[in-house]
């Protein structure tokens, strides 16, 4: 899943441009189920028409780049489309002819292969298995015949001889008459009907496919405009760009998949030819086609060649070689080459691929099994660009259903710090610790703060969230706050998000310039040099602990001050110590400016010569955009991210505490940077 950076760290990516849809009221569940049942019934009963149309649509994505290439050569649309369709038809006809010839040759040798298999079975019986059975039979015979005497054997022999003599004396029965029935030879019309009947339906389907394909390629822009109209778009420019982009990416994906599967079939065919398996071209084409079946297609394509190798070779070397060929080529293609060509996956979750394969096979049979993955990919891409079909993206795509922020907050609500740690480890492979805290943890805490303000969090849930945050911060204590080395990511045709890959790093955060040990004044390294004062929110203490950890990693001496110590009734007893700067941290602002102003005012009366920085993390709070509101708080500076906080404290330390207190105006300085829009 791609993430977008503001230059400071990792943030939640926006949704891709979608076709904006008109507002439609959500019907009840029963109505949705009825609509779904009608759609499924239509797909089933109209499969004779819909299957050719689906194949034509998929072929249009494959032939689209070729049509565009021919048009760039100054050829007319009609001529470019006709050449592309005729080329595709010629290739399909040639492949079909080769398959027919190979099958015919294979059918002629079936009796010979049958005799080889029979000899192998007899060999197995006469081998170790046969010897074992004979040994058991001899033991049984010896047990049953141990009490028999030779006289009984002789008597039985005489009786048998008498029966044989009587049988010879009987006259032989008459031989049966041989009757031969000759069928009437079929006429030319009957012969033609018998030959063409099996291929009539495939030829009709192929004709429909190419006719529909011609119209799709000829009227591609018109069909796109009609789809935009059906989607109810009000922004034609954005919608057109989104549709063209989706079609281009699907074309690149299907071309990449076709090329990869074709290469797989060529390698298998050449390997079987070297091994000596009959009809290697047939099995190469079969492997190419079966590889469109998700997960098991390549392994199913190995069953028939292995069985044929067992029928051809009297020994077992050909069978073993054929098995090793498929066992080596498929993992190399699937695990190494596929990620390089179009990403680690098709953008569809593995479970969705399995369910879609079962669903389309049930609806359309073997053709549906071959088309299941391409059709599901098309549905996912539509779901990412059309608002009304967004549920398809949620159901079938392999992207997380929740954003990293929502995922983090959900783990906090579930009181599962272990999963939160695993989630953090994944993000920290590409982002620095401060970027993770800024763009995931603090924003997750903001969600919790909003829920607490709405009164939906129980006291036990608040305690669990605080405990989970504390455990997470402790687990990340030993991790350095540095940008990880960018991993070498090759350029890809189609990545897991359903988009063209560009090989860029997922996170574009910039490292914070850490001070040298000799550069940081000794007064700022003493314990309590930077006072981190928590607001009265139930998660302000957790945010304070995070800021404390990041500052300590840069050599600052810090001290966390709970809100209770600086409350109005206890401020007189509070001792600031050797403070060089004070940072007031609050996750809430709605209804809190008065509270924060009083807190800053109490701190100012206690330590008048120390600069006070207000850390206000609510980036989407409208009050933060009001200079008058910030000025009323009374702080010397305001920061809206941990990065800003660290850089502000570093600047104060380099200036030995900043300008003289008398030179500061009573009004707070403006923010260090414009507040970004919420992710």
Automatic annotation (TrEMBL):
Pfam families according to UniProt: AI-2E_transport
Membrane topology listed for this record: Multi-pass membrane protein
InterPro entries xref list: AI-2E-like
Major location (coarse): membrane
Record field: compositional bias (Basic and acidic residues): 147-158, 164-173, 657-666
Keywords attached to this entry: Cell membrane, Membrane, Transmembrane, Transmembrane helix, Transport
Region (Disordered): 147-179, 655-679
Top-level taxon of the source organism: Bacteria
Residue stretches spanning the membrane: 27-45, 51-70, 79-104, 195-217, 253-275, 281-304, 316-337, 357-382
Subcellular location: Cell membrane
Protein family membership: Belongs to the autoinducer-2 exporter (AI-2E) (TC 2.A.86) family.
Protein's recorded name: AI-2E family transporter
């Amino acid at each position: 899943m791609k993430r977008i950076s503001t230059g400071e760290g990792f943030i939640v990516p926006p949704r891709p441009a979608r076709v904006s849809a008109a507002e439609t009221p959500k019907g009840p569940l029963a109505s949705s189920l009825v609509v779904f049942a009608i759609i499924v019934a239509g797909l089933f009963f109209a499969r004779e028409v819909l299957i050719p149309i689906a194949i034509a649509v998929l072929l249009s994505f494959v032939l689209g780049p070729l049509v565009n290439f021919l048009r760039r050569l100054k050829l007319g649309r009609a001529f470019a489309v006709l050449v592309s369709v005729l080329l595709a038809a010629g290739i399909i006809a040639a492949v079909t002819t080769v398959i027919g010839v190979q099958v015919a040759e294979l059918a002629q040798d079936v009796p010979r292969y049958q005799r080889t298999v029979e000899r192998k079975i007899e060999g197995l019986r006469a081998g170790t298995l046969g010897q074992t059975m004979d040994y058991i039979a001899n033991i049984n015979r010896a047990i049953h015949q141990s009490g028999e005497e030779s006289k009984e054997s002789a008597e039985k022999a005489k009786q048998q001889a008498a029966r044989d003599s009587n049988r010879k004396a009987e006259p032989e029965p008459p031989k049966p008459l041989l009757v031969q029935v000759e069928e009437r030879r079929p006429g030319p019309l009957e012969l033609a009907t018998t030959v063409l009947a099996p291929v009539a339906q495939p030829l009709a389907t192929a004709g429909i496919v190419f006719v529909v394909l011609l119209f799709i390629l000829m009227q591609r822009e018109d069909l796109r405009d009609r789809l935009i109209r059906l989607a109810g778009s009000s922004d034609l420019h954005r919608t057109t760009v989104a549709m063209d982009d989706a079609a281009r990416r699907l074309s690149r994906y299907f071309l990449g998949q076709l090329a990869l599967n074709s290469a797989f079939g060529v390698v298998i065919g050449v390997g079987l030819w070297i091994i000596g398996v009959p009809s290697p071209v047939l099995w190469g084409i079969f492997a190419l086609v079966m590889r469109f079946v998700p997960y098991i297609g390549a392994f199913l394509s190995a069953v028939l060649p292995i069985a044929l190798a067992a029928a051809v070779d009297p020994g077992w070397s050909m069978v073993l070689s054929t098995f090793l060929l498929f066992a080596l080529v498929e993992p190399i293609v699937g695990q190494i080459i596929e990620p390089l060509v179009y990403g680690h996956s098709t953008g569809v979750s593995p479970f969705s691929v399995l369910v879609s394969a079962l669903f389309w096979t049930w609806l359309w049979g073997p053709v549906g099994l071959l088309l299941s993955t391409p059709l599901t990919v098309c549905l996912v891409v539509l779901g990412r660009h059309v608002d009304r079909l967004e549920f398809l993206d949620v159901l079938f795509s392999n992207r997380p259903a929740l954003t990293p922020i929502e995922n983090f907050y959900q783990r906090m609500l579930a009181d599962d710090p272990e999963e939160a740690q695993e989630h953090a480890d994944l993000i920290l492979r590409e982002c620095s610790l401060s970027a993770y805290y800024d763009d995931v943890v603090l924003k997750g805490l903001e969600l919790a703060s909003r829920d607490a303000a709405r009164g939906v969090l129980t006291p036990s849930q608040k305690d669990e969230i605080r405990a989970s945050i504390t455990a997470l911060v402790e687990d990340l204590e030993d991790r350095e706050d540095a940008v990880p080395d960018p991993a070498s990511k090759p350029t890809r045709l189609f990545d897991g998000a359903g988009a063209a890959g560009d090989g860029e790093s997922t996170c574009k955060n910039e490292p914070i310039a850490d001070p040298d040990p000799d550069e940081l004044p000794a007064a700022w390294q003493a314990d309590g040099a930077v006072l981190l004062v928590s607001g009265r929110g139930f998660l302000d203490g957790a945010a304070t602990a995070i800021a404390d950890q990041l500052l300590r990693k840069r050599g600052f001496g810090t001290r966390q001050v709970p809100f209770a110590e600086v409350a109005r009734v206890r401020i007189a007893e509070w001792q600031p110590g050797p403070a060089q700067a004070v940072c007031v941290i609050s996750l809430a602002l709605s209804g809190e400016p008065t509270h924060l102003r009083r807190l800053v005012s109490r701190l100012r009366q206690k330590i008048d010569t120390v600069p006070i920085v207000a850390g206000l993390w609510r980036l989407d709070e409208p009050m933060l955009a009001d200079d008058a509101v910030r000025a009323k708080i009374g702080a010397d500076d305001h920061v809206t991210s941990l990065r800003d906080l660290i850089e502000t404290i570093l600047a104060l330390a380099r200036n030995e505490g900043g300008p003289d207190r008398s030179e500061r105006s009573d009004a707070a300085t403006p923010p260090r940077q414009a507040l970004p829009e919420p992710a």
